[in-house]
Amino acid sequence: MRSRALSITTSLVLITCSCTVTSCAVSVPGDPTAAGIPRTSAKPLPFTPTIKNRTNDRTDGTTFEPCSAYTDPELQALDINPATITDAAQIDSANYRGCHWRAFDYTSARGGTQYSQIVGLEMPLDQYKKKMSSRTWQPDRTAHGRTIAVASGFDDCVVAFRSDESIVTTNAAATTPSPGLTAECDRAIAFASLAISKAP
Q: d(Cα 43, Cα 30) in Å, to the nearest integer?
């Protein structure tokens, strides 16, 4: 009787151990991540890219993707026509990735406002401004707690900020620029501010 009781007890222990080991081997869906490191899932691009290696070692300094970061209403609120989106890159393994858009006021006959937003050079913002010293840089500003650099050109205004290791630049250009490019800079700053609210 004692031997039978011992046998039953041993069997229960073995079953319990077996269940415990089995439960440890259960597969958990998803990819493993390091503790404390946020993981972002890339939304699909709103077009089929034709550029090979669109993301490469020159454009992978941030997970931010301008082409899929916004909803149509967000773009429309900035007078950007979501239907006009095109890939900014023109060659395989380009030095930058991003997109171009046109404003609702744009027509092929009389032009209008055009936008671009790209991820490119991996460097600090101050170094980027020195590299682009041909532009007239205004005093730095702040958007959502982040420093932005603003510069005007001949017919456009560019706004730059740093996301992770990369510089993200937003450009607003007009066929007929406003006096002092004030309107173009206001538009570029508004678009860059939206980007900052989404970029790491």
A: 17
Alpha-carbon distance 96 to 137, whole Å? 22
In order of 121, 141, 157, 158, the CA distances from 145 in angstroms are 22, 10, 21, 19
Cβ neighbors of 197 (< 8 A, separation 6 or more) are: 144
Say whether pLDDT at 161 is over 60. yes
Q: How confident is the model at residue 32 (pLDDT cuts 50, 70, 90)?
A: very low
From CA 170, how far away is CA 88, in angstroms rounded? 12
The C-alpha atoms of residue 133 and residue 85 are separated, in whole angstroms, by 29
Helix (H, G, I), strand (E, B) or coil at 53: coil
Query: Of 118, 122, 73, which is closest to residue 96 (Cα–Cα)?
Result: 118
d(CA 106, CA 187): 15
Answer whether residue 119 shows pLDDT above 60: yes
Q: 151 pLDDT exceeds 90?
A: yes
What angle (nearest 5°) sits at the alpha carbon of residue 25, between those of residues 21 and 26? 125
Query: What's the average model confidence in pLDDT over 20-32?
Result: 36
pLDDT at 77 > cutoff 90? yes
Hey, CA dihedral for 41, 47, 48, 49, is it positive or negative?
negative
Look at residue 31 in the predicted model and tell me its pLDDT.
35
Contact 163, 198 (CB under 8 A): no
